[in-house]
Amino acid sequence: MTTQDQGAGQVVLRLSHITKRFGPVTANEDVSFDLHRGEVIALLGENGAGKTTLMNILFGQYTADEGEVELFGAPLPPGNPRAALDRGVGMVHQHFTLADNLRVWENVVLGVDALSAPALNARAAKAKLRELSARFHLHVDPDAKVGRLTVGERQRVEILKALYRDARILILDEPTAVLTPQETDALFATLREAIGLGMSVVFISHKLHEVMAIADRVLVLRHGKLVAERAVGDTNREELAALMVGAEVSAPEPSEGAAGAALLSLRAVRLAGEGTTPGLKGIDLDLRAGQITGLAGVSGNGQAALSDLISGLRAPDEGVLEIAGEALRTWSPRAAVGHGIARIPEDRHKTGTIADFDLTENAILERYKSEFSRGGWMDWRGARAFAEGLIKGYDVRCHGPEQRIRLLSGGNMQKLILGRVLEGAPKVILANQPVRGLDIGAVNYVHSQLLEARARGAAVLLISEDLDEIMRLSDVIHVISEGRLSPAFARGTMRPEELGQWMAGKGYDDAA
Amino acid sequence: MTMRLEPIEAPGLARRAGLPALAIAGTFVIGALLAMIAGGNPFSVFGLILKGAFGSKFAVLETLNRATPLIFTGLAVAVAFRAKLWNIGAEAQLYAGAVMTAVLGTGALAWPSWALLPMVGLAAMLAGALVLLVPAILKVRLGVDEVVTTLLFNFIFLLFVGYLLEGPLKDPMGMGWPKSARLIPEARLPRIIEGLRLHWGFALGLIAAVTVWVIERRTTLGYEMRAVGQNVDAARFAGIPVTAVILKTALISGGLAALAGFSEVAGMKGALTKDISPGFGYTGIVVAMLALLNPLGVVLAALFVAAIFVGADSMSRAAGVPTYLADIMLASALLLMVLAILLTKFRVRRD
């Protein structure tokens, strides 16, 4: 390859008339575009618009039915992941492709170095990894087990993996879904640095402000077709949003409301950390009726511990958990559900649903015992009716309650989970990353449901790494850093930069 | 050129039923090739196997009798595997049931048959359940791998049975043979039809299969077991009592395997010996896998496996082809079935 001596503007990647069908579904239809050296293009589209399929074709995971891919001027043999890898295409997937039982550096070298000789290469690999970590501000301990890392840290490993292989084209599938504003800024800074060195980037996203911030050109996909191409200088967020969904969209906004009594309180709660993730270091928190409490923070700072605590998976090591002013003795997931806590888990696939169960079986996961069991026998007729009610009431797009949930899109899966937990008007709602990976339509739907719950007097805890989301929806905001909780900040009293200081660990009373 | 697996989102019926059928067909092709190598005509060898398994009333009854313990151990494995409890110890649980049957059935309880048989059967189930409960508790409390513990416990328990037959349970009238005293007549499973050599153990096996099917599909426990087996994290998050479900599964699985021992001692043999099971516990794994863990499929798979064993015995006498053919065919059936199951979920792509 002689790309080094050629200037910017050279076409490094060309997709010509790509069409891909899955049975009756056309995922991509006649999509063509060029990527130039040192350029960032954004692929924008709702979930199911065909972005990921297109990139999987480029990366050889799928074979296109029609059309072809050209890399650095030469056609790419279809359906061979190694071909794209070997020619310098790195892909960071939305769903991570890491081995939990291996260490970070082992994951990074996996598939690069011979399997028989990892011990010999460990020192060199770790040194290179540390150097990349430092240069690209992607901090992660090379010796940590991946299974112990938070989602945010795993994302960094994925990016490092691509960088380690000297990728010259980087494909990032929803890379900022798990990053904080600072981390996102840092990622953008490193991307810009890499672009300066001749890297080209395909940035897949549906976050408009990020697309505007990083991309040179935006390609909008809708229903598998390329519907528009804009230089970022010639467009704006409103136009892009309209192009994406094919209509004008407006995000829900919270109305005025008054806070009520504390429905769930933590008093000096301590929880031991697990592995490299911190626990909780003496936290006081009140979730009040009619209020959305936002929890901002960098991933891996105790959000998981707090979420496990409120979900009922863990009980406090020290301190008290109070519901409506009453201290709890026994605590379990079933007790949490029984006390009217709706729990939207962070990971839809891993903890929220059972992939091979149908919609009915998934819908009743939390209430089968109390509502659909008569003396040890399942009431499948009632369960099915319940699932049908959720499908209708929460607009779950599916073939029916017998469909396996693994075949649903992320948005529809989340709608079913929403229905499952919100049915029966819960008093407390734990929403952990409720819109991660969802398209704008589904995001607005989830947010409007949370606002509706707030309006009827529920106490909502919104845990998110998206500061925009937190600031837009929350009545009060706490920041979490290394297991410590900031004071409550009322809506509109803090600027993002100030919250960022707290997220970085500044301002806490370290006597705790 | 490389090959790789691509997941299939919604496998069709042809794939889900056709591939397992192909696996069975492949088993016969392998069997045919081996028969030819052994100097037999494959068609006549299979003909003889078929005749040996189903060719006469005696043959059919022999096949059904041989299938009986395999139905129980197959169910035991299927139930456990469904909840991802890897019970490799059906052999030990079978012997636990057999020991309990011998202990209670040789005169310790002088009850009439209608009271004694259910009592012995339940006691045998309890014994088998407890044998699996120990590894299950070690798994949920300490995270000890149950594959290792249940497998190794088979050897421990067989040695224990050897000790019992040389010691406390030894038949004083047995002329030195390591066998227990004979069961009293009230403790024997009667024949289903007088004059035919088929005991009620087979009917009990069919009842057990239907019961397990009903448990898995219709009861709350079955729903919990499937949830725990499919995704233990989601089950725990939803509030399903994972530990309790695993322990209940262990009790059911161990109890089912023990019924194989009960049925063999009280139905077939009438006394406990060290060789009442020629590996029924292990063959139960093959049966369960061939049945794709479906309880009703277990009955068919057990009949298939028993037919090959019984038929191969008689074929061997007539055609001079070794009975090892049966073992190889079962092993092939298992491997091909595992492959077939994989291919119902993934498609092989050649690039």
From TrEMBL, chain A:
Gene3D superfamilies: P-loop containing nucleotide triphosphate hydrolases. Its main location: membrane. It comes from the Bacteria. SUPFAM superfamilies: P-loop containing nucleoside triphosphate hydrolases. Keywords: ATP-binding, Cell membrane, Membrane, Nucleotide-binding, Repeat, Sugar transport, Translocase, Transport. GO terms for molecular function: ATP binding; ATP hydrolysis activity. It is a peripheral membrane protein. GO terms for cellular component: plasma membrane. Pfam families: ABC_tran. This is ABC transporter ATP-binding protein. It is found in: Cell membrane. The keyword Transport applies. Residues 13-248, 264-507 form the ABC transporter domain.
